Amino acid sequence: GVLKASIAMGRCMAFLQPTYVLVFTGLCYTTFLLFEILPRIESIHTFLGPELWGYSSYERDVLATTFFFHLFMVMFLISFRLAATRSPGRIPLDSSKDLSRWRDGNFNILKETETTIQRIVSSLEGTLGEKVRLLVQNMVVVERKKKYGYHRFCSFCTLYKPDRTHHCRICSQCTLRMDHHCPWLANCVGYANYKFFILTLFYALSLCTFMLVQMGPTWSKILHAISNHHKLHLLPVSSLYVAVLLLTPMLLVFLCFHIYLTANSMTTIEYREKKNSSDPYVQRRFQVAHLKFDKGYLANLRDSLGPFHLLLIPVFNGENGTYSGSTQKKL
Fold first, then answer.
1. Total count of domains within the chain
2. Active site annotation includes 182
């Protein structure tokens, strides 16, 4: 009924919000280029230009502004495109081993190990020490459904779910290491595009911060723009400044939140629905499964974002601690 209608409407409008992002980005680029960069270039070759416009009189400053603005813009667009178009990762069904695991549920887990895990997740007593960590790190599937310890199964895809996998009703598919469905990307954020999502936020924040700093001298003249007809050219810049000023703190908070999640090896779904759940059995299952993925702050960041020299480069790391062995390497 209502749920199906809302899902259908969401699919029909899926590409509107990414279009809004691209249109706003285009307006930012055009406005900053026409009303900030080009006047600065012109002021260098104009008598009293720098003093009249309030810009730096040094050509190297203008070149640096132009270079970094385009650098942040290009890196944002590349990251955004990859986050929006790259598949977040689907349940692998390429080999007979994959089919045996995810279609038939044959995980080759020893009966003794399975019994131990079911006992641990169904009981709220006992500590989760190093012995339990070593046990779960060598298991293909750790997460269990409900307190009875059953394997998780997707009734829509008719497949067993790898750890951290969830079904997205908008995408109509299961997503590996699903973080959330992002309407601004019209795509799920998951295993294979999470780094691109983080870099999209980072370069968007860098671009907005850079624009705010560079438009500071112009902003000081905005109060006079209405009364002084010679400065009506500042009105587009003032509108852009206000929009970017409102957007920047939201991007900062969102980026910091996801860095916190990444450092703690959590997804948005796990943070919202499991770690902070009012059901103690849900919390217990999360704590047990989390032992498999949590390697410490720096290792968690490296698993998701890659080695230090590739930290800010939009390339897929290939191994982010979500899976292990041949499954991880193949994905």
1. 1
2. yes
